[in-house]
Design goal:
The complex is a heterodimer of chains A (387) and B (427). The longest helix of chain A is centred in the C-terminal third of the chain and has 15 residues. With 387 residues, chain A is an alpha/beta fold. Chain B has a seven-stranded mixed β-sheet with strand order 10-9-11-12-15-14-13, with helices on both faces. In chain B, strands 8-17-18-24-20-21 form a six-stranded antiparallel β-sheet, covered by helices on one side. The longest helix of chain B has 18 residues. In chain B, α3 packs parallel to α5 and α6 crosses α9. With 427 residues, chain B is an alpha/beta fold. Chain B starts with 7 loop residues before the first strand and ends with a strand. The chains are: A alpha/beta (387), B alpha/beta (427).
């Protein structure tokens, strides 16, 4: 299938991205009503010379970056899950669990070329309040090229409120499943465009992780982290992960957050995390999803999962709607995005795709999603058959 | 024999038979620390074998060390028994105590040995500690870790055997004899490489203090926490500190809340003007006048431009050594870490350089005493010509294959359980 039109207005662009869910559309939409948007696919063998052209082609197929970002402040949420010094064997993190910095670098450069006035690279780094560039150095990266890839590039570790005077509140349209609203670093509010720059992976808790699940790392450790204060937010409390409060519901977040809606709901990550991230996708819309599936890993989202291995699907995906993009990602990995709980890849968890679709963020129905660029069947990488 | 050549063994009180000296054969032990009740026959047999048996070792508590003493031995008796800390805490099922980093605490002595060697460079440093609570269950690797840790940092720990192990070895129990042989092998290995102790520590950070009360607590805690985050440092006594101390450094942290001696202030002034970073409290920082805001907002420091470098002045004092170590590392930037390790877990490393500066040694001490589940890699942004892996667990040094990427070289290390040393020849 080829792209029908690239003449998107910014309003159309935001509508396609599911931004309407946060703009007052309120309750859940039926699957048939959830927005559909095209997804671009590209083969890309490595992070070398072919990477930039592949990304450019995809963005052009989606209508061009300029229409989305010209004159705008752009936030780019990357994925650096887990410790930067933990690797899958000898495989550097960017070839397994992390978004590769070459992808980030090309995207930032193209954002600058497309007229973005400011680009903020964001991540709630694992177990730390250290600056994001220092976290990158711990991964063995040199962050300097990212800072110079576009005219005004900033890094921010969004585990704290940082330079901002307060946290930004994002109510969940329709009231939310677990929490009625989420609090994030203001970098997620003080931007015109939010890009989720994710990795194509399976996930121990959610079955799969791409653009929507990537935003889980945006939830500040000072509020939702294992050692968050039980009363007022303590900006120093940035150690640990997000298991205690978000995965298992063993206690409530810091007092800035309202308490859970239903304390009797299951205390299981497979129930809670898909709901939290599906709600977050509705509360804080993602305008552009880019998924790095060139090199990645199978069996889980990080080296800490049990039986995991490095893989090389050689694929990039991008889309204006995170549910549509993640649905295609799921299909690329050899799964049915319409699968319900109990069926791969959601054997033990609820489907984030289904929950986000119910939230009206976007459709997961491949019959409604226009795929442009490389045909799906040419990039499909049946992840569980490549052990 | 001079004390710097002594390789000591704490003779177990239960060993009454001089024939048990035979259990030390094949080891480099040349010095017996005999308990008062040791039979005269043991001492005589030791003398016949050429072993020294010093009457008195000047063991001292850390706090009571006479740093000005001319004793050739600086013997510290309240070091830690090296291990993952098991003081409690953590989640159920997690037997190791978690530190502020989220990583397990370690009962480690590297900082202490570094401090002792820096303050008394002409003396030979020995450490020992009270027997660990689980002494009866110690494995060979526990003893090997104790020997290797002290050697790594340039000290010695007298070889000590738990009473249970000593009794079993004396009785000829196979397991105990095997444990002793393993420990002797490690001891022989480290003593064959004793010359490496002369290599100088390689670090980008100097930690300045008089290391006496009331500054000793903050100073030593900061060293401990810097070591835990593998922030390489060199402790410097303020009174002995010169511009030469700062050669190759990127940052100097001054701990004390007292004015700097004029010579030290002048050296730091030049260091900052040439591009270095100095962190200090308000009172000593007042010595440095020429300033402009560096435009680096920081929750705990005001950062000023100073020549080509920076001056970071603590806003409220050094309340938390953990934060102080972290702030120092980040203000300096981890980009100045000469090496980094991946999948290191509970491995600490100590980096030294040969006198000619052309070779480095990165000593690795694995406090978990268990091979990492994922292979450990060493990365350096310095170009490396050749890397050799040395370990008592490997028969011969092993040439490591270089994985060269833009901006860094990397080496994947063979699995090891207790200690290893990576010899790097710089390009």
């Amino acid at each position: 299938m080829r792209m029908k039109s690239c003449n998107y207005s910014r309003r159309e662009f935001l509508r396609a991205s599911g931004a309407g869910a946060a703009a007052g559309m309120g309750g859940a939409l039926g699957a048939a009503e959830a927005p559909a948007s095209k997804v671009a696919l590209a083969k890309c063998a490595d992070y070398g010379a072919s990477l930039g052209p592949a990304l450019k082609t995809m963005f052009d197929q989606l209508g061009g970056l300029g229409r989305l970002v010209k004159g705008k402040t752009v936030a780019v949420k990357i994925n650096m899950t887990g410790s930067p010094q933990q690797r899958l064997g000898t495989t550097p993190a960017e070839f397994a669990q992390y978004t590769h910095p070459a992808v980030t670098g090309h995207v930032v450069r193209m954002l600058g070329e497309a007229g973005a006035v400011r680009v903020r690279i964001l991540e709630g780094a694992f177990s730390t309040g250290e600056p994001l560039d220092e976290f990158m150095i711990d991964a063995g990266w040199d962050p300097a090229p990212l800072l110079t890839a576009a005219p005004k590039v900033e890094f921010e570790n969004t585990n704290m409120k940082g330079r901002w005077g307060r946290y930004a509140k994002f109510p969940v349209p329709g009231g939310g499943s677990i929490f009625p609203e989420y609090y994030l670093n203001q970098a997620y509010e003080q931007c015109d465009v939010l890009i989720s720059l994710a990795k194509l992976k399976e996930h121990a808790t959610c079955g799969v992780t791409m653009a929507i699940k990537n935003m889980f790392g945006a939830l500040p450790l000072t509020i939702y982290g294992d050692h968050a204060s039980k009363t007022d937010v303590d900006e120093e409390m940035t150690k640990g992960g997000r298991g205690t409060i978000l995965h298992y519901g063993r206690r409530q977040p810091a007092a800035i957050s309202p308490k859970e809606k239903d304390p009797a709901s299951p205390r299981e990550g497979q129930y809670r995390v898909p709901r939290i991230i599906a709600d977050l996708a509705a509360a804080r819309p993602i305008h552009l999803s880019i998924v790095d599936g060139i090199y990645t890993m199978a069996g889980g989202e990080g080296p800490w999962n049990g039986r995991v291995w490095a893989i090389r699907p050689g694929v990039l995906l991008a889309g204006l709607n995170p549910v549509c993009t993640d649905a295609v990602c799921t299909a690329v990995m050899g799964f049915d995005p319409m699968a319900a709980k109990g069926t791969a890849p959601f054997e033990r968890c609820d489907s984030t795709l289904e929950l986000a679709e119910r939230n009206g963020v976007g459709t997961r129905d491949l019959n409604r999603i226009e795929i442009v660029g490389a045909p799906l069947e040419t990039v499909r990488f049946e992840i569980r058959k490549r052990a | 024999m001079s004390p710097d050549r002594w390789i000591p063994f704490e003779w177990p009180a239960s060993w009454r038979d001089p024939a048990l000296l035979g259990l030390l054969e094949g080891s480099p032990v040349n010095c017996l620390l005999l308990p008062p009740e040791a039979p005269r026959a043991v001492k005589e047999a030791a003398a016949r074998k050429g072993l020294d048996c010093p009457e008195r070792i000047p063991w001292s508590l850390i706090k009571e060390i006479d740093w000005k003493s001319k004793e050739p031995l600086l013997a510290i008796k309240d070091a830690f028994w090296p291990d993952l800390s098991r003081k409690g805490g953590g989640e159920p099922g997690d037997s190791s105590e978690a530190g502020p980093t989220g990583a397990p605490w370690l009962d480690a002595n590297g900082w202490l040995i570094q401090l002792a060697r820096a303050r008394a460079p002409e003396r030979t440093v020995w450490i020992k500690s009270d027997p660990p609570e689980n002494a009866a269950r110690l494995a060979a690797s526990n003893y090997q870790l104790a020997v290797a840790e002290a050697w790594t940092y340039g000290a010695r720990r007298p070889l000590w055997l738990a009473p249970e192990l000593a009794a079993q070895a004396a009785a000829g129990a196979g397991n105990a004899r095997q444990t002793l042989e393993q420990v002797k092998k490690t001891l022989a290995w480290v003593e064959a490489r004793r010359q490496w102790s002369a290599w100088r520590p390689f670090a980008r950070l100097a930690v300045l203090s008089d290391y006496t009360a009331p500054n000793d607590y903050t100073a030593s805690e900061t060293l401990i926490l810097a070591a835990r985050r593998n922030l390489a440092f060199i402790p410097c006594e303020t009174g002995k500190f010169t511009a030469e101390t700062l050669r190759g450094m990127r940052a100097a942290l001054y701990i004390d809340d007292t004015e700097l001696p004029a010579a030290a202030a002048a050296a730091l002034d030049q260091f900052m003007k040439a591009g270095g970073l100095v962190l200090a409290l308000k009172k000593p920082a007042a010595a440095f006048k020429a300033r402009g805001a560096a435009g680096e907002p920081h929750p705990r420091f005001e950062v000023f431009r100073y020549g080509k470098g920076r001056l970071a002045v603590s806003k409220e004092g050094y309340d938390d050594p953990y934060l102080l170590a972290q702030d120092t590392h980040l203000l300096m930037s981890k980009r100045h870490d000469a090496v980094r390790l991946f999948n290191a877990g509970s491995i600490q490393w100590f980096h030294t350089a040969a006198a000619d500066g052309k070779r480095w040694l990165v000593h690795l001490v694995n406090y978990s005493r268990w091979g990492s589940a994922n292979q450990v890699s060493l990365q350096s942004w310095q170009a490396i010509k050749r890397a050799l892996f040395h370990s008592p667990e490997s028969a011969d040094p092993m040439v490591l294959e270089a994985h060269r990427e833009t901006g860094h070289d990397e080496f994947h290390l063979p699995r090891f359980f207790v200690n290893a040393s990576i010899e790097l020849e710089l390009a």
